[in-house]
Queue: 4 jobs
Job 1
Amino acid sequence: MGIRKKTTKTPPVLSHEFVIQNHADIVSCVAMVFLLGLMFEVTSKFAVLFITVQYNVTISTSGPEETPVNHFHHGIKDLATTFFYMLVAIIMHAIIQEYVLDKINRKKHFSKTKHSKFNESGQLSAFYLFSSGWGASILMSENLLSNPVSLWEGYPHTLMPFQMKFYFICQLGYWLHALPELYFQKTKKEDIPRQLVYIFLYLVHIAGAYILNLNRLALVLLVLHYVVELLFHMSRLVYFSNETRQSGFTLWAVLFVLCRLLTLSLSVLTVGFGLATSENQGFDLSAGNFNVIFVRITVLAAICLTQAFMMWKFINFQLRRWREHGLTQNLKKKQVPAKSKSKKDKANGVNGVNTNGADSPRAKKEKSS
């Protein structure tokens, strides 16, 4: 899958510029090696570790007709699968950038600042739209919304359906791919710390919930968060096309606060009350049970600190917007008297002479004196 950028000058092979321009082709070749490995018996067992979801467990359902159902649990082999789908995320990132965002950038002629923000919002909008839709379908199929007690009932939730496990593998792969993308996209040095912070937060929370078997709670919270973030980045894309359209930010601000409150409520309800009153208490690594008070306090502290950090960033963002809006209004107020004064001068005449050639009353008075 070749994705080439049009350049007039070819950089030296294996130089930084060569790798950046052709990183999608290079990554595609690496992914193709794993796919070709499935064709040969010698390498198929190794290639399967990277491509297919591991740790399959078949369970027969109780009833008149026993039907086998496949479930999955997590393990160390998931690192190989996550690595492969990280490569897939890099390829998809390059496709969206080359065939969608770059074409829009060439038409709109954005400034350098808007260009980088537009690319960021475009990529994240596509990811949030796909992830929120996929996650919502899993919630509906597993009846997690209609039965909130299932978020903690029957913990530890070591067995997952295929869709849920594959969802978490893809989530980890996507946020891991964001690290090399900082190099491939030539991210500015001042923007790197900000992006590293939110990449780190995503990886810690998703991987932590996946390892601690809190996948049901994590799925609900991820869908809530992704829907709100999708609205923000879509609003920013609309704002870049027309700066007068800012109503989306107002709706996002309301939903952002509600999402933070709902996240805290569900987390406290599930971890603080549901797991705390569960009969299956104790620490058992082999059984995947982490229902001890230290783990529960750590999970709640991590969630609460993250929500507090996000609210602090949100408040600073809103204050900055209000400050910029106030400065804009003050500039407009200063410009209005100047324009009205210039119109009055034109009506009275410039330098005592009217536009029709006759002297103004002020000029006549000066002549008589």
Job 2
Amino acid sequence: MNEDNARFCLLAGLILLYLLCGAAIFSALEHPFEIRARLLWKQQLDNFTRRYRVNLGALHTLLRQYEEANGAGIRVDTLRPRWDFSGAFYFVGTVVSTIGFGMTTPATIAGKIFLIFYGLIGCAATILFFNLFLERIITMLAYIMRWCHERRLRCAGVGVMSSREESSGEEDSLEGWKPSVYYVMLILGVASVVIACSASTLYSSMENWSYVDSLYFCFVAFSTIGFGDLVSSQRQQYESQEAYRLGNCLFILMGVCCIYSLFNVISIVIKQTLNWILGKLPISSHCPAGRHRYKDGSVETVCDSETEAVAEVYVGRRLSGEMISVNEFMVSNKVSLALLQKQLSETAHQGPRQSYGHQNGFSGGVGALGIMNNRLQETSVER
């Protein structure tokens, strides 16, 4: 089993274990409350039917009808209209951001069909926006950390030289310097906490939620889980209503972007942890024979490891097991787009991958499908 497959199987097993542990914990925490709630609801139904002499079947029919009306946005308490322009704008925002609170859903067949195509394009565009935001955040943090590192060098005595010698000394000192991804994760984590705490202060005062409920809502919304049990800006009237709705949108936008970036950085750390675990296991990590990749007209042997493939194609060197730098993180974040552009270029100019031909039934294709087909061709040729 090569390193990529071993990493995939290990991650799948750990996720399954994580799910089992989570299910056990949540079941222990929430199941007793569910049982008490069912007993209380049954008692309330019995008391109501006895007191008002209502047929239980007729009452159940009325409750089902209310559930249908609830799905269309009808509530006992007075809430804002769901499908006026502002309500619809809030809805499409939850669609394209993949939050999907669920408190508003299309009820017509035309609306459901339109949502499929609208969400397909909107979600893809929003994910692209999040990726571009992540690249800019990483670039900004890299510049900030580089500036801080330069300041430390000056304080350590580099600045006592002449200006030309100082510039040369700083370049030599910075040549091998790499900002740690742990610092990036820490900064993004602090930014996410600050945004969540600030937003929770706003929500607890405007929505009359407890602060814990407000923090819970912020995580559910910012991470795009979107349960829908708590949803902000749904009452018909608020104090300073326009300012609150603007602040609500800005907090959700900033929170989603920061949490998305944080998740990406955490995934890099998880991958580093998996590599460390695999390093402790008796699994061979050398490059399998027969694997080749074209680079600037030449052929070179590459490992199946994703980080090594990225380094050889885009950086021109192998990683040496060191902590991944921000620059390497940015490169790996652009792998899919770079492969897509490479495939488009090779298809347009009938590049080296055309040599596989159609002998295995896989056409070259363009874009992600072309990449997948070419990978299937390579695998078949290796066999």
Job 3
Amino acid sequence: MASEDVVGKSRGDTAVNTIVNLAEEAKLAREGVKGPGHQVLSICKSLVAGGVAGGISRTAVAPLERLKILLQVQNPHSIKYNGTVQGLKYIWRTEGLRGLFKGNGTNCARIVPNSAVKFFSYEQASRGILWLYRQQTGDESAQLSPLLRLGAGACAGIIAMSATYPMDMVRGRITVQTEKSPYQYRGMFHALGTVYREEGFRALYRGWLPSVIGVVPYVGLNFAVYESLKDWLLQTNPFELAKDNELHVVTRLGCGAVAGTIGQTVAYPLDVIRRRMQMVGWSHAASIVTGEGKEALQYNGMIDAFRKTVRYEGVGALYKGLVPNSVKVVPSIAIAFVTYEVVKDVLGVEMRISD
């Protein structure tokens, strides 16, 4: 009987606690303060928006992405891809439609969590940096400056890139392999397991250092330029581009395009070095890397990769694949930013990039 009283009392306490919690949530909502449950849901929605934005933007430019990597890593003794148009035609002729999208599944599997973490990390880093800035200056109305946005973007890029780097490493190898490659990775998980088994755990992070260095100007400038340009347009409203304190989708696409062009141009040489370092140690490398029996260059680190690339191929080699990358990065970055904000609007997320 006593146990039944305890159980009844426990259930009663649970019911009371539930009612109290619901009442508190309702009270907070009426006062304009969101409860912890709402905050978690908002974070999940923000992550979904970032993932969708990354997946759609990468799929839209997948053929140019693959061609860029092929141009970056192809052996200089055996040139198969001489430019954007010729390269795309060659892929179509030799591998068909599937060849244009080879590696896109792995790329999307990587970019969805990467973009989700990146956008979410940027918002959290922005809030944290803004809070510290207001605490130091004593100005509660202070806003993020371009330099502070650069720092928040760099933090977000490093966190997201480090979390998903092994997937990016194997994606590069899957992208460059063809049907004539001596060994075929059957997919992302097979590639991850093979690299780990044959080359060790460190191989999964080969090229990580130039990636981290490159993330600072690339992602940092992307966010800083995009947000600063958007704020400037909202404040000055040239040609009446803003309506009801909102920019048209086309205008936001333009902001994203400018941000992407500046960021990728500054960081591109580091991207070339990263890709080349990812190919080191590949015992069954694709012919595009080995050069049909030619000896592929081996690199002992980032500095050695820079030195050998410039010595044997010239400074221009640091910008191989820049043209298709420029063509694809403008719509890719623009679509990512706009899709992110549109999806957040659809999901009803109050947190915005510019908060």
Job 4
Amino acid sequence: MRPTGVSESCFSLFSLHSENALFGMGNPLLDISAVVDKDFLDKYGLKPNDQILAEDKHKAMFDEIAKKSKVEYHAGGSTQNSVKIAQWMIQTPHKVATFFGCIGTDHFGEILKQKAEEAHVDARYYQQTQEPTGTCAACITGDNRSLVANLAAANCYNKEKHLDLDGNWELVEKAKVYYIAGFFLTVSPESILKVAKHASENNKIFSLNLSAPFISQFFKEAMMKVMPYVDILFGNETEAATFAKEQGFEETDDIAEIARRAQSLPKVNKKRQRVVVFTQGKDDTVATIGFLSELVQERPLEECIRAGHYAANVIIRRAGCTFPEKPDFP
């Protein structure tokens, strides 16, 4: 994890260890994990170790895998996982983390609400009837996991019918740190922009994750509308390289140099110097999550980074985005 452009005072302006201090908004998915056999993989044309988006031929698979004898459910999706693990790292009080996203009015949606509650996240979902709750099936064979994601309702978030409602916007105003994955730029860039502007106007911390190379490539315009409000930019080395290429940075593959150039991009709130955190290694996303948990507790940068490494170390040893009851982190 390599940060650029930081002083400890960046993180010491608020008393953040309170309910709804951390706000996340993104694509909620119900993770469904079960052990399957080769016939199951063959039936749906799956490879033993893969990550794909669901096609029509996979739709029946989610109900079938849910009927397996030892199925496990977890609240998932990039941003929801992030705030969920930040909440786990913090422990108390509960509901430090708030999450907004769209689900369906179905059985999987009810399970997702239950799992978010068990994780002590204050999940306020927008529910609609057109699409079913988004799911991600983890088909386990031996040491292999084949992941199939069906975004479904996650693509249906509606700013006017959810974010703009007074009761929901009050939760946005209550937060002090904001984290949104770039994936949500494909769903509701106008929602991200509204939250980002609020954070900037009130000198709060707004963070964005590059999420995947295709976001920088194909959603560049939406991303760069948000960038002037970004206080902390997260990404891994592959995403950073693609971002640099799309931004027309002079030829460089040096991650530190790319971070410095990203840091110097135009910024609205001059009271905060932009922090750029580019991770290098297999488990970059989890490291980002741990970073957030310390950020909302006013810890200095070094502690944020140490927490990121700790969270990554714990979670890569477990199946899916799961964790023990309590962290062993001071």
